[in-house]
């Protein structure tokens, strides 16, 4: 029984590095009513000083503005939990509006490239490349008429199963909207099996001693 406190100390030391503090990033974007719509303002703490990248090519049925955030090293023994939120309102009430939001994350195949950046539009401009390098959630929100009054939205937790990706992103589509106070948190969660192995390792160490 006197060994139990020591087990707790060992597990705390071994498990602590596997449970990272959640990373929190922010973003904002305003899109006009032109045809096609254009980003008129935007930024954030994401890749390349918060740049919004436009993803559209002949091989993809959808188009998105995307901002990428550095999440973690690819890890098949953990998974990632996302939470996000933002304020939304119409940019110009004189025009119609639309808004949609999803999240993306990079695949193991992208991390295998060994590049210190997310997949940019030129990287997925070919048959099947977008599906190979990028996973996408279903839409969190469709707004067919964006309110003239600021509305606050939040979503999560959303689990990325099977592994922790190297990059995650916020993706928006639509026209005549203004998104402000956007935030996204991404946290690496160790798998239960990993924690069990760490516990067994700690007990084995004590038994040997």
| Outline type | globular
- Low confidence ranges: 4-18, 194-207
> Roughly how many Å apart are the termini?
15 Å
Give the fraction of residues assigned to helices.
10-25%
Structural class: alpha+beta
CATH level-3 fold name:
Jelly Rolls
Number of domains: 1
Secondary structure tally: strands: 11
* SSE arrangement, N to C: HEEHEEEEHHEEEEEH
Largest pleated sheet: 6 strands, antiparallel
Count up the helices. Answer: 5
- The whole-angstrom Rg is 21 Å
CATH architecture: Sandwich
Question: Can you tell me the CATH class?
Answer: Mainly Beta
Please state the average pLDDT score. Answer: 86
How much β-strand is present in the residues?
Answer: 35-45%
List the main descriptive attributes of the protein structure presented here.
Jelly Rolls, six-stranded antiparallel β-sheet, five-stranded antiparallel β-sheet, alpha+beta, 209 residues
Quick structural summary:
The chain has 209 residues and is an alpha+beta fold.
Give a written overview of the molecule.
- This protein has helices at 4-15, 47-50, 108-111, 129-133, 192-208, and strands at residues 23-31, 39-44, 53-55, 64-70, 78-90, 98-106, 134-136, 141-143, 151-160, 167-175, 177-190.
- The protein is an alpha+beta fold.
- Strands 3, 4, 6, 7, 8 and 10 form a six-stranded antiparallel beta sheet that branches. It has a five-stranded antiparallel beta sheet with strand order 2-1-11-5-9.
- Helix 1 (4-15) crosses helix 5.
- The two termini are 15 Å apart.
- The relative contact order is 0.29.
